[in-house]
Specification:
single chain; 151 residues; mainly alpha; 8 helices; globular
Length: 151
């Protein structure tokens, strides 16, 4: 099931129709573990992205923040959870005030990447690596380490 959710999220991040289906899935199937809470949070954020009403957008960003909070409460060190929140927060406008965990998430990802990345699908590990490099939040030492890390 988790592999299906990962694939679905990948599609949903690019296609509004898939984002809506993923959101509806989580409305009918509440998350049962930390990683699913993170994907629900990401789904809520995609819902916000695809809305026009600023109040509705704000509501779903707040819901995403709550879901990510639950996910991290359940599994603080999980790099997949931290990556999902990092990538969402990195893409949110800073003025919303929801991009407050970027440094924390980056540090947890870097600390645990070597240990956990082999447990993830290769495409997800590559996405994490690319997201960190694209974020411009890495110092030179971190950038060099992640660039040279063999997947």
């Amino acid at each position: 099931m988790l592999d299906d959710i990962r694939l679905w999220y990948s599609l949903a991040s690019q296609q509004e129709k898939e984002a809506e289906k993923l959101f509806e899935f989580f409305e009918k199937n509440p998350p049962k573990n930390a990683i699913l809470w993170a994907y629900k949070g990401a789904s809520d954020a995609l819902k916000a992205k695809n809305l026009y009403n600023p109040l509705s957008k704000w509501h779903y960003v707040a819901e995403a923040d709550k879901a990510f909070g639950k996910a991290i409460f359940l599994d603080k060190e999980n790099i997949e959870i931290r990556f999902l929140r990092f990538s969402i927060e990195w893409n949110l406008p800073r003025l919303l005030g929801y991009s407050t965990h970027l440094e924390e998430d980056k540090n947890i990802i870097l600390k645990n990447f070597e240990i956990q990345n082999n447990l993830l699908p290769a495409e997800l590990s590559k996405a994490i690596k690319k997201c960190l490099l694209d974020s411009n939040l890495l110092n030179n030492q971190e950038k060099l380490w992640i660039m040279n890390y063999e997947l």
